[in-house]
Amino acid sequence: MDLGIKGKRALVCASSKGLGRGCAEALAEAGVDLVMNARTAETLEETAAHIRETYGVQVTAVAADITTDEGREKVLAAAGHIDILVTNAGGPPPGQWIDWDRDDFMAAIDANMLAPIALMKALLPSMMEQGWGRVVNITSVSVKAPIPQLGLSNAARAGLTGYVAGTARQVAPHGVTINNLLPGIHATDRAVALDTGVVKAQGISMEDAQKQREATIPARRYGTPMEFGRTCAFMCSEHAGFMVGQNILLDGGATNTVM
Ligand code: NAP
């Protein structure tokens, strides 16, 4: 299917690896020029070079921490005009409800709620002015089904979800859509980090930890960054203009709900 977005320009945050990279590659596959971001310049440059060579699109790579004001200023200054925004950042660490103090909550809220909101505030006006724009926020399955040990993530992402629900309806009359894409378990470094937590907590092997988690997924496997990215690319496509303020769950059926 032609997604109808060839030649548009996307900012994909936190995209040198994992789900962000999947989104960047799928948009590049659709002919979209990219502004990519991550903190580590070396990995980011490697991924940017791979995408330029593979898909023949223009890629601007900006090494910066997207959760800070300075990082966002640097990225936005290099980005210029943007038609499509994909927000993403690393997820907060796991722990117990009693572990976290104000600083921990503020770090999680900065990274997973206020950073995407600041990027939307910066880029929505020009999208609305041109009468076309797409925003996809990478959030988490924890928005629909909270994960007990990820209390910081549950809290910060719930805040972003509430903000998007209202804002998406305010910008939709201008041809701009905002939606959230909710990953369940996907095969990325983040999944390895969470599996390592299970290995330590239960004293089992990595293979057994992964088998245990796969058994909780009706699809009996982890998702891949590329299938996640292609769903994101569709949500950014010409065809998804009637999708407004939705929370799209990609979890292989793991969350046992009707809606
Ligand atoms: P990942 O494989 O660890 O990749 C994270 C990417 O983000 C890397 O490119 C990393 O590069 C970049 N990054 C991290 N913090 C950043 C920052 N402050 N500024 C700029 N770039 C940053 O993670 P992932 O699995 O793709 O996860 C992406 C998001 O989805 C996370 O918020 C995660 O919590 C959420 N999620 C993932 C899963 C899953 O199963 N994978 C499930 C639910 C939710 P640098 O380190 O070089 O900056």
From TrEMBL:
<dbReference type="InterPro" id="IPR002347">
    <property type="entry name" value="SDR_fam"/>
</dbReference>
<dbReference type="Pfam" id="PF13561">
    <property type="entry name" value="adh_short_C2"/>
</dbReference>
<dbReference type="InterPro" id="IPR050259">
    <property type="entry name" value="SDR"/>
</dbReference>
<protein>
    <submittedName>
        <fullName>SDR family oxidoreductase</fullName>
    </submittedName>
</protein>
<comment type="similarity">
    <text>Belongs to the short-chain dehydrogenases/reductases (SDR) family.</text>
</comment>
<dbReference type="InterPro" id="IPR036291">
    <property type="entry name" value="NAD(P)-bd_dom_sf"/>
</dbReference>
